[in-house]
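Colleagues,

Please find the record for the two-part complex below.
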Amino acid sequence: MDAVEVRNAETFFASAPPLRDRDAIVAKVEEFVQRRLPTASGNRASRMVCITSGGTTVPLERKCVRFIDNFSSGHRGAASTECFMKAGYSVIFINRRGTAQPFCRFLPEDPLLTCFEPAGDNLIQLIPSHAVAVQKAVTEYHSALNSGHLLNLPYTTLFEYLEILKIVSLSLRQLQRNCMFYLAAAVSDFYVPWQSMVEHKIQSGVGPMAMELAQVPKMLMLLRHLWAPEAFCVSFKLETDVKILIKKAQAAREKYGMHAVVANELETRKQKVIVVTNEGQVLVEKDASQADVEIPLVDFLIAQQTSYIEAGGANVLVV
Amino acid sequence: MDAVEVRNAETFFASAPPLRDRDAIVAKVEEFVQRRLPTASGNRASRMVCITSGGTTVPLERKCVRFIDNFSSGHRGAASTECFMKAGYSVIFINRRGTAQPFCRFLPEDPLLTCFEPAGDNLIQLIPSHAVAVQKAVTEYHSALNSGHLLNLPYTTLFEYLEILKIVSLSLRQLQRNCMFYLAAAVSDFYVPWQSMVEHKIQSGVGPMAMELAQVPKMLMLLRHLWAPEAFCVSFKLETDVKILIKKAQAAREKYGMHAVVANELETRKQKVIVVTNEGQVLVEKDASQADVEIPLVDFLIAQQTSYIEAGGANVLVV
């Protein structure tokens, strides 16, 4: 691994604003991972996946009024969480505040005001056409949380996202090849370093505004080679221009040593994706019986991880 | 009024992406305003206020992955909507999707998942500690909508915001001095003109990224002098640096001919504001009995508008 990459990452973290509730997050993650480790009584470890979802923000001012945001509804991450849980995985769901939550993807925007109505005497009731969907969503979401197989970690900024991802990686690595990273979040490529960020709101004045943004260090490299080197790593490449998509996915796989890169094009991403591995490209498409492309995608990746675990030799925990 | 400003605004609108549902929005606004106009049977017009709330986004790419956002929770706009309705005004609430809604400001984030729990058999129930707040919010919100005195118009981008504001202005002007604009939204100062916007996702490549943003035409000028020249106009100035705040508020009042500019500093804006009018500055502060600074602020502005209506002469409709 490139020493420059490591130094860039160290500089990034050293200059990032302190993560609020860091100790509580570390403790929650460690407790969640410990419960999945094999015990003396012979319990086998379950597999665990860290799913990242939604887009990160990049503040342009310290007292943040303006920021650059990356659009992502979080539907892919939420749907994939459901699929992995169904397959028996425990899930650490690192998600942007306000984006889609597992089991709740089909609710309308602002479900409280849309799905309930006054019923007199300050009481409220579910509007009949929404009742089944709302009851199912709340029930399934809480069951997943209460099962102890889902850990929900929200973020907003790029800084929070990367700090949390690092915390999770350094804990999950204990599961060796039984853990997977499924990095579906839309992460900013550019940012304003905290040190050089203006304290106050940028003044509008006259004429156009020029802005210079620094590149975010390539954290995939660190995750793959330093933080959790045995984990099965899946990253996502979203492009709006299909002509460059596959080439960029292949380049990302080689550069960062990903086990799989999921290439998706903005307009067709809900029907099909192309998975690039060291064996080539595979088109993964949902069939008529499947509600989401994440169903065949997660199946495919789980099979890939199983091969990876089996190739890993005797000291690896197999479910 | 400066011919350059008018031309800049025309260029902006001509090059903006078409507003989705434009015809439906025009019809809704016109119907809402018509119901408040005096009829032959002698009904007097009620006063009406257009409140803008939340922050606008500026897309950086046409197939929008990245955008610049302006932070605003929308609490001021939502609280002010409640105050104006209590005072008998009808309210057109132009608000950023997902930001605070009137009567719902004190609910937790994601209230459906936070305030409800499974009750077995796929049924759900309100968690007792949240029950009163949720029932009150849903009841009051729907009552306000059903009363016919609240029109809710959501936006996301700067383009949508300005198109909707223009539509509302050109309709509200019929109410002459009986209408108010209360422009609390955090509107982008800079944008990427649609014509010069790249079609596809900006490529990260190597090295830092330079971005040049154009100034948004000063629409306050058009609103005040062309779209609704008799309306009582209130704009807001938010700064994080208190040293320049008042000077900027005074400059905005003079430049755009606002009837009042509300100057607020990021850290103290929930306790006090300074209102700049042509008569000077007035400190408006909430007292111990008041839940929100919007209560005395809206009182103050309504009194100012009443004077403005009374000064307007006989052809003006007085409530």
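The first strand of chain B starts at residue 48 and ends at 53.

Comments are welcome before we finalize the supplementary table.
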